[in-house]
Specification:
Elements lengths: L6 E2 L6 H12 L3 H13 L6 E6 L3 H12 L3 E6 L7 H11 L2 E3 L6 H12 L5 E4 L3 H8 L10 E4 L2 H13 L6 E3 L4 H24 L7 E5 L3 H12 L3 E5 L3 H9 L3 E2 L2 H4 L5 E4 L9 H6 L5 E4 L9 H6 L1 E8 L2 E6 L4 E5 L5 H4 L6 H21 L7 E3 L2 H15 L8 H7 L5
Parallel strand pairs: 1-4, 2-3, 2-5, 3-4, 5-6, 6-7, 7-16, 8-9, 8-11, 9-10, 11-12, 12-15
Antiparallel strand pairs: 13-14, 14-15
Length: 420
């Protein structure tokens, strides 16, 4: 074991199981595999120190493999205490030489210690999923900022944080917004969240979905994808929104739209996907049906006001792992999944590899672009360059055996002129 990198994981002996799962996910990630093969030849990030704070899953493992193939020295910690796959972490250490600091179910102190372990490596490129690593660098470890070339961010919540830093003039390096790449949010957010969230709910509860009412807070890419899948499973869908355009879109799609306090009267299952705080709060709790099941698929555990539940309950019972039943003062029972954290990762395995293939292809290519063009970039949040985004889509189509038309020279000229 002396040849292994630095690590703090649950059990290195889980590596065989983890490697098998990583290779299974790799079968459905052909775009990332093609990038890894090129990286092995070209070594574009030779010697670059990458610090990653991400969900330690099999899909993330294949991104880490691509980064190692590029020549980078990678250190990885978890971006959520409940999402780590301990066998995956073990394989990353043993089989791919990656410093991993992540244990499923780790407490807050351990979580922060693991972020500090990444900071201690003096990372030059940051890969974040929720901006916890970025936030640590900008608050507690500002002496490390000068050594950071730039970063990438995967989530809506993280992008909001970083955009706020940039607006204040406190962002210490350029960051690429992976979340808003078309080949990320149109697929990962929309299709991935829809399938994986329902997967998490079913695994945790084993409840029949059809015939039940689901309330979804948020009708962005994640919420609309979840609504589509829930409707397909035979659920009655209610949408809660604050954006009038999104609410109108949901209405036109045939869903009921109403305020949270009203929707609470109907909810058998409630899912939050907004990225905000206290989305399910006192007005909703006060009207909520007895036996309602609450969960969250937004990045942080702030969307459901758990403090309200704790303060207005006479008891809390763990019915099974990550399924807790609160008994309110008036006798109603509310069931909370995954402690209000990401239900699709805590209770299931997260998004399917096929959609993460494109998201992580953007991550890998954005890191390469960032390293090559660092001197040209300002300390602000950038969209992923169109050539990367479009290129990922084209390669994905090729791997799926799908062909498309191309414009003729005449058509191109027609679309770029008014003299016809």
């Amino acid at each position: 074991m002396s040849d292994l990198p630095l690590y703090e994981i649950k059990d290195i002996n889980l590596a065989d199981q983890g490697l098998a799962r990583i290779m299974w996910a790799d079968r459905d990630m052909p775009v990332l595999a093609s990038i890894r093969e090129r990286f092995e030849r070209e070594r574009p990030l030779e010697g670059v120190r990458i610090g990653a704070c991400m969900h330690v899953t099999t899909e993330t493992a294949n991104l880490m493999r691509a980064l190692v193939a590029s020549g980078a020295k990678v250190t990885l910690c978890a971006s959520n205490p409940l999402s780590t796959q301990d066998d995956t972490a073990a394989s990353l250490v043993r089989d791919f030489g990656i410093d991993v600091h992540a244990i499923a179910g780790e407490d807050a102190d351990t979580y922060n210690k693991h972020i500090e372990a990444v900071v201690a490596t003096d990372p030059q490129i940051i890969m974040d999923d929720g901006a916890d690593l970025d936030t640590a660098l900008h608050t507690r470890f500002t002496d490390k900022l000068a050594g950071v070339i730039g970063g990438t961010e995967e989530t809506t919540t993280g992008v909001v944080r970083l955009a706020a830093m940039a607006a204040e003039g406190t962002l210490g390096y350029p960051v690429f917004n992976i979340n808003d790449a078309n080949t990320k949010h149109c697929f990962d957010n929309h299709y991935g969240t829809g399938q994986s969230t329902l997967d998490g709910i079913v695994r945790a509860t084993n409840r029949l979905l059809c015939g039940r009412t689901i309330v979804i807070s948020g009708y962005g890419y994640c919420g609309s994808g979840l609504a589509l899948r829930a409707k397909g499973m035979g659920m009655d869908v209610i949408i809660c929104e604050v954006d009038p355009l999104k609410a109108l879109e949901a209405h036109m799609e045939g869903y009921r739209v109403m305020p949270a306090a009203e929707a609470a009267r109907f909810a058998d299952v409630w899912v939050t996907v907004t990225g905000d705080c206290k989305v399910v709060d006192a007005p909703a709790f006060e009207n909520m049906k007895d036996g309602a099941i609450l969960c969250n698929s937004g990045h942080f555990d702030s969307e459901i006001n758990i403090d309200w539940l704790e303060g207005h309950s006479t008891s809390k019972v763990e019915l099974k792992p990550l399924v807790e039943e609160y008994t309110l003062e008036d006798g109603r029972k509310i069931v909370l999944l995954a402690q209000g954290r990401l239900v699709n990762l805590a209770c299931a395995e997260g998004h399917p590899a096929s959609v993460m293939d494109m998201s992580f292809a953007n991550q890998a290519l954005a890191a390469e672009y960032l390293y090559k063009h660092a001197s040209e970039l300002e300390n602000k949040v950038y969209d992923v360059p169109a050539e990367i985004d479009d290129g990922v889509a084209r390669v994905k189509l090729e791997t799926l055996g799908v062909e498309i038309d191309t414009l003729t020279e005449e058509q191109i000229a027609y679309m770029n002129s008014w003299k016809f």
